[in-house]
């Protein structure tokens, strides 16, 4: 069966999710916060398994305009819910509303729930309450400018929960945002990669998974796998196909450091959980002590933001140190995520490009400093002599 589907994502990375999906062979429509596509049950599993930067894969059950609760009720009741929900289905209804006449989210949720119960009770000839003891089918009614979208979540826990983070630090970066930071760079797996603020190791681990072409969802389950119409043999086949595409022969040069030794230990445990601890060189190191004689590499960092006034001075001093250490590496491309929009002033260089991203609810900029690659041995020797 073909479904209307969408991959939801954080604001600012929709184009990245769209590119990931095109690379997987899908035709897509990119919109704010989501990417639409069509697919079968197999595509639902495949996209949940492979998308690195998305949050969830949802089935779009129906869309319509409604400005009254009567319209919402009637149009929801008109949907053949029994074609998707078994008689014992548990179907919690979440809701949100923006710029709409139906602005009460609890009332909208209650109306949708009641309409679905009515349709299912009629279809299954139930005169008592529906049991809701079976598999869970999470539903959402989202209303924007009086346009209603009813969706069913196939993912469960958000896709950023890869299953490898045994421990995390104080301000962890979500795994799908870390993957986005890597995918927005010029890095290829044959190039050196450095994260000088690795924290719990999320960025280098995501880089290693990209470098080895490991499906980000290989280590977890999805809520739709419990649904009766999702075939277990098909799921296993799609997972086996994904496993067969992983490249364990490519040699990776990925380094991760942090000034905090405890974070290095946490990073190692997380990398061990995903089976990549031997692919990443972890080291306790202050930025001021960073040195390399390698060329044509990529640095990706999520330095402390210094959002509290007491921390701002410390952050600014760190940004100055970063400039002193990293600016001379002219063949390297450097990418830093921070909410401090004056970052360039302290770093001492104008970014080649800035990209607005949201780290959770925090507005940040991704400052990009593109390097000039060293291409031949003569210029490489000149570079090393400097």
Automatic annotation (TrEMBL):
SMART domains: THUMP
Lineage top rank: taxon: Bacteria
PROSITE patterns assigned to the protein according to its UniProt record, in alphabetical order: N6_MTASE (PS00092), THUMP (PS51165), UPF0020 (PS01261)
Keywords: Methyltransferase, RNA-binding, Transferase
KW Thylakoid (keyword) present: no
Domain THUMP, first and last residues per copy: 43-154
UniProt entry tagged with the keyword Chloroplast: no
Stored InterPro entries: DNA_methylase_N6_adenine_CS, RlmKL-like_Mtase, RlmKL-like_Mtase_CS, RlmL_1st, SAM-dependent_MTases_sf, THUMP_dom
GO molecular function: 23S rRNA (guanine(2445)-N(2))-methyltransferase activity; RNA binding; rRNA (guanine-N7-)-methyltransferase activity
EC numbers for this chain: 2.1.1.173
Pfam families linked to this entry: RlmL_1st, THUMP, UPF0020
Name the record gives this protein: Ribosomal RNA large subunit methyltransferase L
Source species: Lentilactobacillus parabuchneri
Species classification: Bacteria, Bacillati, Bacillota, Bacilli, Lactobacillales
């Amino acid at each position: 069966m073909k479904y209307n589907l969408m991959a939801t994502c954080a604001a600012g990375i929709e184009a990245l999710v769209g590119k990931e999906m095109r690379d997987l062979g899908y035709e897509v429509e990119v919109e704010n916060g989501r990417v639409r596509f069509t697919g079968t049950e197999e595509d639902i599993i495949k996209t949940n398994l492979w998308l690195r930067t998305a949050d969830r894969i949802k089935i779009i059950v129906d869309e319509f305009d409604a400005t009254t609760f009567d319209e919402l009720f009637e149009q929801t009741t008109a949907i053949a819910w029994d074609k998707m929900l078994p008689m014992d289905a548990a179907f919690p209804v979440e809701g949100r509303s923006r710029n709409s006449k139906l602005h009460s989210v609890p009332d909208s949720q209650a109306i949708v729930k009641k309409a679905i119960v009515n349709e299912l009770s009629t279809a299954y000839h139930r005169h008592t309450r529906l049991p809701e003891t079976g598999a869970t089918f999470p539903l959402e009614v989202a209303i924007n400018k009086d346009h209603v979208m009813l969706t069913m979540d196939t993912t469960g826990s958000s896709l950023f929960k890869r299953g490898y983070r045994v421990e995390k630090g104080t301000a962890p970066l979500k795994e799908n945002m870390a993957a986005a930071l890597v995918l927005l760079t010029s890095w290829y797996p044959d190039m050196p990669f450095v994260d000088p603020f690795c924290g719990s190791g999320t960025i280098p681990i995501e880089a290693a998974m990209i470098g080895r072409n490991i499906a980000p969802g290989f280590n977890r389950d999805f809520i739709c796998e419990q649904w009766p119409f999702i075939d277990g043999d098909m799921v296993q086949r799609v997972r086996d196909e994904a496993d067969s595409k992983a490249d364990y022969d490519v040699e990776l040069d990925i380094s991760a450091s942090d000034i905090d030794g405890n974070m290095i230990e946490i990073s190692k445990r997380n990398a061990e959980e995903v089976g990549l601890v031997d692919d990443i060189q972890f080291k306790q190191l202050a930025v001021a002590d960073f040195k390399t004689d390698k060329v044509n590499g990529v640095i990706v960092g999520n330095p402390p933001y210094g959002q509290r006034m007491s921390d701002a001075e410390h952050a600014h001093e760190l940004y100055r140190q970063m400039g002193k250490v990293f600016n001379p590496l002219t063949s390297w491309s450097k990418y830093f995520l921070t909410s401090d929009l004056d970052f360039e002033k302290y770093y001492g260089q104008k970014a080649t490009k800035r990209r607005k991203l949201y780290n959770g609810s925090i507005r940040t900029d991704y400052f990009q400093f593109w390097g000039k690659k060293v291409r031949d041995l003569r210029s490489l020797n000149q570079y090393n002599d400097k």
